[in-house]
Amino acid sequence: MSTNFSINTNAGAQVALESLSTIQTNLNKVENQVATGDKVSSATDNAAVFAVAQGVRSNLASYDSVNTALNDGQSLTSVALTGTTSVSNLLTNITQSLTQLSDGSISDAQRQTYTANLKSQIDEVQTFIQGSTYNGINLIGASAGTAAVSAGQFSAFTAPKSVSVLSGLNGASLTIHAQDLTGGTAGTDGFLGLARLVYQVSTSSGAAATAADTNASAVLATNASGLISRSEIGQNEALAALAAVSASASAFQSAAGAAGTTSVFGAALANFTTQVNTALGSLGADNSNIQLQVTFVQSLSDAANTGLGNLVDANLATASATLTALQTQQQLATQALSIANSNPQNILSLFKG
Questions:
Q1: What is the pLDDT of residues 91-148, one digit of tens each?
Q2: Which of 44, 129, 208, 232 is deepest in the core (most CB within 10 A)?
């Protein structure tokens, strides 16, 4: 093999430089893997894998959005459940008050005390219903309901609306079903049906129940001082309110003291209790469905995240070993280039005498 003694072409240096350049490129790649933890961090590393990884990252962001929506939905049902449960617990006290009022042997003073106590309990029910709002949404009673309006009436509720919650990447949704505890626009059942026991349809302060209380369309009235509450609830009113839904005990105490006939008080407590229990069951089921979906979406997100790791994550043990090897190769290649670069200097020795 002949040796080319040339000062214009240094083949050895060219080979050493190419080798050093390749080593440096590989070294930069491994150093990037160690720094980022990714073996594919850009399209230049692997265009096909990077494109797939970007799609998975998009799905992961969507899963986060779905989980946020589901968590908001669960918070909404939890607030509604809390309010409904509070109402349910208070029904025990309301039942006790009505039972006391159904006793014909109590004095007028006692009846007025029990009536005032029942009114405070029913007012508390109103507070529970109206306070069960999350992010501006109330599933058990619209916000307009139990307030005196300018027309001088006790405003009927507008029905609350069910809410659709995003539950999947394909636009799928779960429905959280509204549970109207208010009595709706009619105001003859639900909360407003119960409120008729203590609030009057007449504007005569302190008036007892009258024939107007048989009229389902009559609204609870207000005067300049606000809603008019009854001074006392008669025995027949209380008995009517305590009656079972299927019972015919719907008599009420008229202004003249005689038992009336058909009354909106009939089974008022039983009707409201049924609505509350139905609401508890429905809201509880909706809450459970959302929790199941939260768990499912989180599982999908975890699986996608694992798949993304398999695509792009670097094996740092391998990268560490490779880094050490390349650093050694870099030192050797640098030394080889230094030797190759010194070869033209050896030509000078040929001209020494």
A1: 999 999 999 998 989 998 999 999 999 999 998 998 899 889 999 889 998 654 444 4
A2: 129
SS (H, E, C) 177-210: CCCCCCCCCCCCCHHHHHHCCCECCCCCCCCCCC
**In terms of CATH, what superfamily is 57-299?**
f41 fragment of flagellin, N-terminal domain (1.20.1330.10)
Q: Which residue has the tokens 């939260």?
A: 294
**At 273, which amino acid appears?**
T
Domain boundaries along the sequence of the chain = 57-299, 315-343
CA distance 145 to 73: 23
Nearest-angstrom CA–CA distance, 152 and 268? 24
Whole-prediction pTM: 0.75
Contact 294, 167 (CB under 8 A): no
